């Protein structure tokens, strides 16, 4: 009897592929183990076993697997169920979920090796110059990799050259799979076995009397071993003895010292062994905790709605403590990497080395280590803190999930697929594990609050700040009036400057919020009105002064700042609008004595970029911090007395049905950074329209008023949470072909689904990276079957792809688009 395995490949395929295995392999294998499998003509991929059976595929002949890569399952059955749900719900393939979910080091892929053909006689005069360069390199090397050939012939596209060499029988191609993960090994040293007794050591020191440096190293090692029972690293011995690596190496060569290696994790906790006691909760926190536990007993998803600085983290800590006491794992999801750096420090004070961290700024090797620690349920992975990708780790015994700042748009993945929402995927994961889940926010999303109102979710409220500190005092400044009376200095109103001056004189820190990076979004010629545009996208280039360049924030295209206008040649260039860079520069001029920092995408690119800026601000090395929305997300700074919002209108006038909800959340969150300890903070909001309804609701903290307005509007225009939406995006480099294709698709949707189809319509930025973009939005009533609607859309997509003229148009589905 033949045995087969169904395999998930990390490529966008609708179905699993079937491969043949021997009887012994079938007995050894289990779902969740990795196998290397051939796919296509010569490629080898890492596949994940999903099923072992004896039914041969009908359409094709099953190939044999190449090799088994694991001794035990890397992915568990709950993960596979969760991945399948994500694939079905978000209209993507399970292969795309697999690729996104596991660290890249687990996806071994073959690399093409170029070898010299030893069997053929080669006439060197027949070879062209580029072919001869490759041939000559193979005389000195047994094999070449693709990137090495590319470097030799100084060309990116090497396929034509390789094809010509294959035709002339000069080379052979071979597929080699390679392991990407390398464990970290640390070099340690100890005294050789012969010299462990004191007598032998005395004899040794006598023989080394003529080599004082070697003698010093041996004595230092003996002393270190006496002081500490821990293994001694080579670099520790170097420091303690004052000897060099050469001296230590000569002792190792003489076998006086013995060198050995210990495998360690790249990320480890190096704090104190004794952890802090949990803080006592105040009355409001105790009440909220009681409500949460009551809802958990009723198996309800629960929302903790606590105002900014109300001490939600202390409630989370209490729940995590209860969870790990029952020997279960806890997952703490955050929307931004910036938040994890501050939170890790706080949680490590309580839980020490029980915490693992998982996010995209960690290297591939670090992520592999966290994955393995969670998989084997090691003590250092009892609590996992991470951004949305931490959802995919192999939890075997999850007891609690906390989704902090649940309203954040960063929880939604946009590109590439799967385009999932981490909050919703976490709720499904909690159902699969039968564990508790808590959503926390000071400004819950309209969807979550709607579920609370309909009694679908449980609810707990903290409406006072910790220590009964008053909510910050908010003040709106009318920019139109200020400009008319000529009271502006740069982009600062008279009122904001006064408050900055007062805060600086009191030794308080200041946060200034401007949700646009760079110096200015537009550079314009005042003579002819021309402004430089991106050649690949339909946007103007943003001016970045620190690099003296114009840069596109969509595709990364950049050019040096021109001295004169490219259209008319006049040197009359001026900037329009302003970003964080310009605010920072103006502050240096207005307050030369103040230390100013900036926190945006440009200053936080490195692995520790966030950490450096946040730590500097926490330790009061900076007086003023200017930043984009990174600043708004739950950061806790003790000494901030003033928050200034440079221009609130840019948020309010955004072309999106969520613009007002987002503005309320963003402005409330950034205001919440002020006055978090004893003294009441102050917030200055600059706007050209200070009488806007949302700004009034922000200044009075009227969340319920905002929610009622938004629900009314969403009911009128059929948007979530009253309806469901699927956004279908089409991309193609040809304008006319895209128009025809989207019209055909929209008409087919209308024939099947009726009036709930909007578009096709161009978005505000209609071309990115030389691809034109058009959107169709499908709206569905909550009573309609979403599965049936998705199947109908998928059927239309199949018909669409069957038309050869439209096949090159890329179709992207975004379910629950936000």
What is the number of strand segments?
35
Q: What's the CATH H-level homologous superfamily of the largest domain?
A: P-loop containing nucleotide triphosphate hydrolases
Instruction: Describe the main β-sheet briefly.
Output: 7 strands, parallel
CATH level-3 fold name of the largest domain: Rossmann fold
Radius of gyration: 31 Å
- Which geometry do the CA atoms define? globular
Helical fraction equals 25-40%
Unreliable residue runs: none
The residue-averaged pLDDT reads 86
Estimated share of beta-strand residues: 15-25%
**Major β-sheet strand ordering:** 15-16-14-17-18-13-19
Number of helices: 26
Q: What is the CATH top level name of the largest domain?
A: Alpha Beta
CATH architecture of the largest domain, by name, is 3-Layer(aba) Sandwich
Q: What is the straight-line distance between the termini?
A: 51 Å
Number of domains: 6
């Amino acid at each position: 009897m033949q045995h087969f395995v169904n395999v998930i490949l990390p490529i966008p395929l609708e179905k699993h592929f079937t491969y043949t295995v021997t009887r012994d392999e079938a007995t050894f294998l289990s779902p969740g183990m990795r196998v290397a499998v051939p796919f296509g003509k010569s490629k080898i991929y890492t596949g994940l076993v999903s099923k072992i059976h004896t039914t041969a595929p009908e359409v094709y002949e099953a190939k044999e697997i190449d090799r088994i890569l694991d001794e035990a399952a890397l992915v568990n059955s709950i993960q596979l169920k969760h991945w399948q749900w994500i694939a079905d719900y978000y209209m993507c393939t399970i292969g795309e979920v697999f690729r996104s979910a596991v660290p890249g080091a687990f996806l071994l892929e073959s690399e093409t090796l170029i070898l010299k053909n030893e069997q053929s006689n080669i006439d060197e005069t027949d070879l062209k110059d580029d072919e001869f360069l490759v041939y000559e390199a193979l005389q000195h090397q047994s094999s070449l990799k693709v990137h090495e050939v590319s470097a030799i012939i100084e060309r990116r596209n090497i396929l034509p050259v390789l094809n010509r060499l294959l035709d002339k029988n000069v080379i052979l191609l071979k597929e080699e799979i390679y392991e990407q993960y390398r464990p970290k090994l640390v070099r340690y040293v100890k005294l050789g076995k012969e010299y462990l007794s004191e007598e032998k050591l005395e004899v040794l020191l006598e023989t080394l009397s003529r080599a004082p440096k070697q003698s010093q190293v041996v004595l230092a090692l003996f002393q270190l071993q006496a002081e500490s029972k821990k293994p001694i690293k080579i670099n520790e011995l170097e420091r303690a003895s004052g000897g060099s690596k050469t001296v230590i190496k000569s002792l190792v060569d003489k076998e006086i010292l013995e060198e050995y290696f210990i495998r360690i994790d790249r990320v480890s906790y190096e704090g104190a062994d004794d952890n802090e006691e949990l803080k006592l909760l105040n009355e409001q926190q105790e009440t909220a905790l009681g409500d949460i536990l009551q809802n958990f007993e009723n198996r309800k998803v629960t929302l903790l709605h606590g105002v900014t600085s109300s001490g939600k983290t202390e409630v989370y800590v209490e729940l995590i403590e209860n969870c790990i006491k029952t020997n279960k794992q806890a997952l703490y999801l955050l929307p931004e990497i910036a938040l994890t750096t501050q939170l890790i420090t706080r949680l490590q004070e309580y839980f020490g080395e029980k915490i693992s961290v998982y996010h995209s700024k960690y290297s591939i090797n670090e992520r592999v280590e966290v994955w393995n620690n969670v998989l084997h349920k090691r003590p250092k992975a009892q609590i996992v803190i991470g951004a949305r990708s931490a959802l995919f780790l192999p939890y075997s015994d999850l007891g609690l999930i906390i989704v902090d700042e649940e309203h954040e748009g960063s929880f939604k993945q946009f590109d590439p697929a799967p385009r999932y929402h981490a909050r919703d995927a976490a709720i499904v994961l909690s159902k699969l594990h039968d564990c508790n889940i808590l959503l926390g926010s000071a400004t819950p999303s309209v969807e979550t609050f709607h579920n609370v109102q309909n009694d679908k979710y449980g609810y707990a409220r903290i409406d006072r700040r910790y220590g009964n500190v008053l909510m910050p005092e908010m003040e709106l400044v009318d920019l139109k009036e200020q400009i008319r009376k000529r009271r502006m200095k740069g982009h600062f109103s008279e009122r904001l400057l006064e408050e900055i001056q007062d805060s600086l004189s009191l030794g308080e820190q200041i946060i200034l919020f401007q949700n646009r990076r760079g110096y200015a979004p537009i550079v314009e010629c005042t003579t002819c009105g021309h402004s430089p545009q991106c050649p690949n996208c339909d946007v103007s280039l943003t001016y970045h002064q620190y690099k003296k360049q114009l840069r596109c924030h969509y595709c990364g295209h950049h050019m040096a700042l021109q001295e004169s206008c490219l259209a008319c040649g006049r040197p009359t260039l001026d900037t329009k609008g302003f970003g964080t860079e310009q605010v920072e520069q103006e502050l240096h001029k207005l307050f030369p004595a103040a230390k100013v920092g900036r926190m945006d995408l440009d200053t936080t690119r490195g692995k520790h970029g966030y950490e450096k800026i946040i730590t500097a601000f926490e330790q009061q090395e900076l007086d003023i911090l200017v930043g984009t929305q990174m600043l708004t997300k739950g950061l806790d700074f003790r000494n901030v007395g003033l928050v200034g919002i440079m221009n609130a209108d840019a948020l309010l006038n955004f072309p999106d049905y969520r613009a007002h909800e987002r503005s309320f959340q963003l402005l409330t969150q950034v205001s919440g950074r002020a006055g978090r300890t004893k003294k009441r903070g102050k917030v200055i909001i600059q706007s050209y329209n200070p009488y806007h309804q949302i700004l009034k609701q922000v200044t009075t903290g009227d969340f319920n008023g905002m929610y009622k307005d938004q629900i009314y509007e969403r009911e009128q225009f059929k948007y979530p949470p009253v309806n469901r939406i699927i956004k279908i995006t089409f991309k193609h480099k040809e304008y006319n072909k895209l128009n025809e294709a989207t019209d055909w698709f929209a008409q087919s949707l209308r024939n099947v689904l009726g009036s709930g189809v909007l578009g096709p319509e161009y978005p505000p930025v209609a071309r990115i990276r030389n691809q034109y973009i058009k959107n169709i939005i499908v709206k569905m009533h909550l009573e309609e079957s979403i599965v049936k609607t998705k199947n109908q859309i998928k059927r239309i997509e199949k018909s669409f792809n069957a038309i050869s003229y439209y096949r090159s148009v890329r179709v992207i589905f975004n379910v629950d688009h936000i």
